[in-house]
Request: fold
Amino acid sequence: MKVLLVALLVYVLIGGYLFFEQKRFIYFPTPPSLTHLHKEEAYFFDDAVVKVVSVNQEKSQAILYFGGNAEAVEHNAGVFKVRFPNYASYFVKYRGYGGSTGTPSEENLYSDALAIFDDLAQKYTDVSVIGRSLGSGIATFVASQRAVRNLVLITPFDAIESVAQSVFPFFPMPFLLTEKYPSIDHAPLIDANTLIVIAGQDQVISKKHSDRLVEAFYQRQNEAQVSVVVIPDAGHNDLSEFPLYDKTLAAFLKTKQKQE
Reply:
């Protein structure tokens, strides 16, 4: 009996730790960047200042990029300037990341993303959205709420709680997590042209979670509107190093670009 009580106590303690410390598992803020190579502007909210790096601002169409949970998004600026020369590109530094103030949460990252998208939508003829890993959850939410022309999801998941359940199978993660990012629920609401890029050797977000999201997209869209590309040898973090990654994104956005 004593062994069972100890085991139950340990189980409860671990469950409590997962609940109270969940943001430590989801968000890994990056330090302020020392580079000033690209323009940076600030969006002021009641409890935070969110910084956004941009390139090619003079173009008529824009890309809004949401990065991974430990990604210094500003490092993409130079690449996007060359990769997508016909688009203005904007990279959001989440609250607590890269010099932005505040503390990240699902609720405030969603609201920040919508506010930034709405601002860009007033300046450009249309805005495409790219989300990688954690950012795919934010991008999917934005596309479910706004008229996004093109949506690119890189190493996406069905829901954070589903991924967490795979990592901690003996704990009721849907009940323990308040940070859920249910992309699978948002997908059927999306009308955007959609590209989903999956890493075949992803050890962080297994392919089954991406596949479930793809199926959710097919509930609303036909196969012609949703493109799925699997890069077989790529992992979660080195996906962008594969030539097929660049070719896939460039071809998709060029093909789907609005003709002036």
Q: What stands out?
A: The mean pLDDT is 91.
